[in-house]
Amino acid sequence: MIIFDLDGTLLDTVEDLAVAVNHSLKKFGFKEKNIDETKRLLGNGIAILVAGAIENGEKNPKFCEAYEEFKKYYSTHLYDYTKPYDGIIELLEELKRRNIKMGIVSNKFDEGVKCLRKEFFADLIEYAQGISETVKRKPNPDAVFELIKLQKAQDEENIYVGDSEVDIETAKNAGLKCICVSWGFRSREQLIKSGAKVIIDKPSELLGYI
């Protein structure tokens, strides 16, 4: 089975996330962030995104309000600019044709993850899991293990595909091979520094490791 990260791996979500975080920052009088600044804050979930975008993070007295405003805005603007990376749909179609099981494990809030799966991958990927009150944030591997169990893939070779240091650590914690993608939110140099062993530059290259 292939387990995919979502943001920065399957979907280019950075513009919608940047717009949403700046909406919240502006409302509460914080300095807005550009796209590159937003990218650097991605990978650990939206609470850490918002905390990283404001002075003193979660200790800021306005953090909770800013976080709730971000969630409210982003939940209604999930699809404004978000789209699959070039070649992703073709890759998933080919994997499905080969009867290879697939799933998504993301640090985005669970409702958003499931909405995005349905919007973009409803006919290709059956299962997607985000963080919730009962599902811990990556690099904790619990969501990965749950997906493997649900797909009855315990006795199969499973591969984790992601775009960040969080994904590398998640794969390590789950005891899985990790394939990193260079088109996401981290550069090739950052991935290598974080311990990436295999990096692909376009989706079709993944087929060479199946």
Description:
The termini are close together. This protein has two domains: 2-12 and 82-209, HAD superfamily/HAD-like (Rossmann fold), CATH 3.40.50.1000; 14-75, DNA polymerase, domain 1. The model has no long low-confidence stretch (mean pLDDT 95). The strands form two sheets. Strands 5-4-1-6-7-8 form a six-stranded parallel beta sheet, with helices on both faces. Strands 2-3 form a two-stranded antiparallel sheet. The longest helix is centred in the N-terminal third of the chain and has 14 residues, at 14-27. The protein is 42% helix and 15% strand. The chain contains nine helices and eight strands. With 210 residues, it is α/β, with parallel strands linked by helices. Helix 1 (14-27) packs across helix 4 (63-75) and helix 3 (46-53) crosses helix 4 (63-75).
